[in-house]
Fold:
Amino acid sequence: MKKALSVILSILMLASMTVFAVSAVDYEHPFDAIDSETFRIPALYTLNDGSVIAGVDIRYGHGSDSPNNIDVAVAISADGYTGWEYNVINYFDDYADGETGTDSASYIDSAIVQSKETNRIFVLADIYPSGGGWKPSGAHTGFVDVDGEKCLLLTDGDYAGDISTFNYYLKNGVVYNKADNTATEYTVDEEFRLSKNGVALKMDQKGSEGVEVQQNVFYKDAELSCYLTSYLCIRYSDDNGASWSAPQLVSSQIKQNGETFIGAAPGRGTVINYNGTERIIFCVYDNTGAIGAHDPIFENASTIYSDDNGVTWCRGDETSVMLGLLKTSEAQIVEVATQENGNPVLRMYARNNSNYIAYADSYDGGISWSTFVRDEALQGTKNCMYSFINTSKVIDGKRVILSSAGGNLDSRADGVLRVGLIDDSDINNITVEWITKYNLTPGFFAYSCLTELSDGNFGYLYEDEAAHIEYMIFSVDEEGKISEINGNNYEGKVKLTFWQKFVKFFKDLFNNFLAFFGMM
Structure:
């Protein structure tokens, strides 16, 4: 019997793998039109009008983190299926497109959310000066307080030098001497581009011949440069992504002196109603934890939040971890219950250093959190970002959440989707029963992001190869079963070919076979 099962399993696995090898489903990728073959860090969010916005890092000819030439783009589709139109909203031009170097300025790691009350879309991202990144960040905010306003510090010397050498600051577009608060001949526009006496200052663009670009205080070769540390910026759109605001350096409000790196947790933000006021929340993380200060092994997740539609931002408390997790970093939040006062209970799922996905709960709108513990039913690739979302679905009277993670315990590989049912009968001990595990793809699998589409299906943006992003659509039925749809194969579009139906049948059969024999 065991031998027969082994043979059947092998046949089904072969059929399942064939799906990925021949993948003849022709559906539109949100970023196909961008002149780059390398992308990372998916973000995905369904907007209030039912359209869908996707975010991505453009990593020109590489898959590496900062410091490198990295920009952030978004793409919007009317329904999350086709018709994606992209816009590169965070862009530096010190390097030519398609070229990179470790002295490049960069934007990286975006997260997206939309206000339910004002329809304003927010995109949070890290922003680094030339040569900046996770490791080279200096232990200072990069700002100085001038008459109660946080102003960006600048230097005309070594841009990575001691903070004491930063003798200028930027206020309302004008550069001032810090010693006597007198205005200089320098001005800086909303995109941080530098002019002198009203004339744009130029510099050679790296990676190109004979091309000049305007100097920028985030560029190494500019006459004035900002401090080499990590910054957080937010852009917003009030017209559903047609146009975007200038970047707001919100790290001036939430980063503390002594902190080195602070970064956005990519993917999605969260919108809640707390004490009758809408609250916008993003997850962030730093590496200034109590266990081994400034050691990147010991990172700590927290939140930034705004109760005034993004005008001001506050910082939540740093989280704590149980022994064995070592850290929390990139995180996503779902609502798991409603308290008697009407406020939600939030659950933060976070990347950590174990082979179990860990979570903590907040009863005060995402400011403070319980100690992070691991979910013993959620094994996954350690030290990698995960995606979690609430859904409108209810199964057996319980609200449904979805999870996406790597299933391989040794490396970033083997994507897995899970369906979870929330049991909030005990408000102080909320549990999630994970009833379905769907094996998405064998081989490489890293970051991912989920969203529920307006028709009740789900959009899914994920890294299926190094520096490559794939988009798919799937459904969840009333029993929690997951079925792939994929772009043109949804109802009303192109019908599946015989071969597509054949391989899809065996892939579904394989997943059902594993579920039946308890092998999931």
